[in-house]
Each structure stands twice: as C-alpha cells, then as structure tokens.
TrEMBL record:
Pfam name, any one: FAD_binding_4
Protein name: FAD-binding oxidoreductase
Matching PANTHER family: FAD-BINDING PCMH-TYPE DOMAIN-CONTAINING PROTEIN (PTHR43762:SF5), L-GULONOLACTONE OXIDASE (PTHR43762)
InterPro entries membership: FAD-bd_PCMH (IPR016166), FAD_lactone_oxidase-like (IPR010031), Oxid_FAD_bind_N (IPR006094)
This protein's UniProt keywords: FAD, Flavoprotein
The FAD-binding PCMH-type domain, residue ranges: 13-180
Amino acid sequence: MLWKTTEYAGWGGALTATGEIARPERASTLEALLADAPAPAFGNRRSYGDAALNDGGRAIDMTRMDKIIGFDADTGVVEAEAGVTLATLMELFAPRGWVPAVVPGTGFATVGGAIGQDVHGKNHHVDGSFGNHVISIALVSNGKRVTCSPSRNKALFRATLGGIGQTGVILSAKLQMKRTPGTTMQVTETRLADWDEQIDALSTSTATFAVSWIDAQAKGRAMGRGILEEAELADADAPAPAKAKSVPLNLGLFSNGLFARIFNEAYFRRVPADGKVSVKRLEAFFFPLDKVHNINRLYGKGGFHQFQCVVPTGSVDVLEDMMNRVARSGLASPLAVLKRMGEDRAGMMSFPMEGYTLAVDFPNKAKARTLIGTLETMTREADGRLYLAKDSLATGAAIKAMYPEWSDWAAEVAKADPDETMVTDMVRRLELRG
C-alpha cells in the first residue's frame, strides 16, 4: 500500500495536519495494512475540528471503501462499507421506499463517520441518533476482525458509537433504514419574531422533522428571531434538482459582520409573514448546503470554529443568555440553528441529551475564540454537553465532566486499542485516553 504525505484539515479549516495517508479499496487490503502499520481512519472529514487529524503520524482514508454489500427491500436493512456516504444511501434507496433513519446536515458524511460521531438530525426528538438504528458493526480492533451489536460485544458496540474512532477501524455496518412514501418532503416554514417564539414553536411542534434557523446578528427585542422548518416525508412531484455551485476562492464573506447582517435580513424576509408551504427534494431539505461545494471557503483562509452545545430542557434560560452574548458580539456567521432533542443516546460518548441544541459558526478570530470559551463554560455550568464532531477548542477537563460515561469508554478503548495506535489530534488535545 502506498503511503502519501499530505496536508489535510477538518471541515472548519482552522486546524490542520500533515502526515502519511493511505487509501485502501478493499477490506483485505485494509486488514493487511492495519496488521503492518495500525493507524486511525477517517472518511470525508466533515467533522469540523481535529477529530480526523493525526499530525505527524499516519491515517487511513476510507472513502474508496464505498460498496453496498447487501440490501433487503422488504425490511429496509442495508449493509454498507464504511466509506459509503449517507447521500448515496438516500439516492439509491429512496426510490425503493427507504431512507437512512437519521442524517446530519451534510450528505457527505460517511457511514463510518456517522457511527464514530453518532450523528443526529432534524428528527432526534422522534427517532434518536444514528446509532439507535445501527444493527451491527464490523471493525478491525486490536488486530482482529470483530463484529459488535447491541447483543454481541455490547460494551465494544457502545464504545464505538460516538467513540471518535478509538475502538478500531470500521469496515462496514448493517443499518435499519426508515420507510418513505416517496422522494420528497412537505415543508412548512414559519417566521418567528424572537427567542420566546423560537422555544415555544420547537417545544410544541408535532412534526417528525423540525429545525430552526436563528438570525444570530439580531439584538434587542428581535434577538432570536428566525425561521422554523417543519417537514414530513412525502410522495409528491419533485422539483427539478438545484444546479450545483462552487465557491472558487477563500472569500471570507461569512467572516464579515456587515455581510452577515445583510444576508440574515434577506433570508428572514424570504418567508412571508403568514408562512410558506412547499415541496422539496429530499436532499434539498436534509443537505441544503451541499449544493454549494467548498462553502467553507466563505470563512476565508483562517477557517472557522463551530460552537455546538446541548443543554437540558430546564436550562433554556442559559441558551437565551448565550444567544444574547452572541448577538451583541456581532461575530456570528449566517449559519446558526436550534433544534429540540429527545432522550435517546446510543453510545457511551454520544452527544445527545433531552433538551435543546444550539449551533453557531464563528470565524477563526481571537475575539470569537474567547467568546466560544465563555459559551463552553456556560454549557458546563448548565450540565450541558459539547459536540465532539464540531469541537476544536475545548479542554479535556470540560469534556470529561460533560460525558458521564467517559471513564467506562476509556476503559473499553484501552482493551480495544492497548497500544494507542488509534489516537488522533483530538484525543491528544483533550487527553481522553490519559
């Protein structure tokens, strides 16, 4: 296997690594590779920080291991290699009546990455996280091929879900998909005037899929205004697919406060005061930003950080305080969302808890990093949690305090990878295995 020295980064671009990368295409090649030179694996690197980075060491790019192994059209069970993207699963199987049960905001996430971060979507309050729909996982752990599931090697299974790749390299997984009547979504968009309307709307929504965009630049009485999207899977005539666009250069528009305010005003006004109902293609609803390739370049060469937390339902006042601070800072980009989460939590290091999750993008600037530090402290004091798929700035002490099963996870990981061959930059930064 050819190792090639490469400089690479996560989606946020603020943290980078340089090291040798291998790109196997077959399971047999991967297993031989791991027997000779064990190394952590990554997919399309849609995690924002350093979860996929191994600076100065080796790493395995799994994107060429992208085959569908099997599919049962009656039950909706699919077996796929780790490098298969969630957009591919949706594209292949939605016309046959099935979609992935849970998807994040990008279809470029791979099956392996979705397991390693136990991703959640706009339906967590109904369907839980990605890991709640994983039937079994095949991985190479401590030099051996192992299968784990909720009933077989259960501790390893729960340590792998949300376990940021530390139990071994995922080869493939069996997933239970969700029935869909067609390839479209019936979407209702509602303007929300302020923070109180945001929380009331999300808490009372009965939709299967619900997410709220927030104008993170709005202050005063308009603080927290935004647009609630509620949706259901549907069988309707599909609109024509949007033509893909691309950001050719590092433009830095999303790092400009004036641009963000103008963009947010226009985006808020695009929905009429009495609301809007439309039919959207599946990918247009679930992956709206994927139609603009390299959209992360809009933050400029310095990249960006995303702050994403979840706090318990009873701490919603803390989220309001956070949003006030964000709005007063003028630092937030146009990308800010709020969602309601349910109880389900599949893995030992899975992010979700019942409550509300807030995600805000910030340019990689000193003032923004200071603000994010304050928001992280507020999250910890509210008994909330930070999302490892988005984190690039937290401390190990904070993360360990937020994840009650961290010590159990670390013990299981130590058994699965006793020589610490899977350690990444994130694990070192947060001292998660120390």
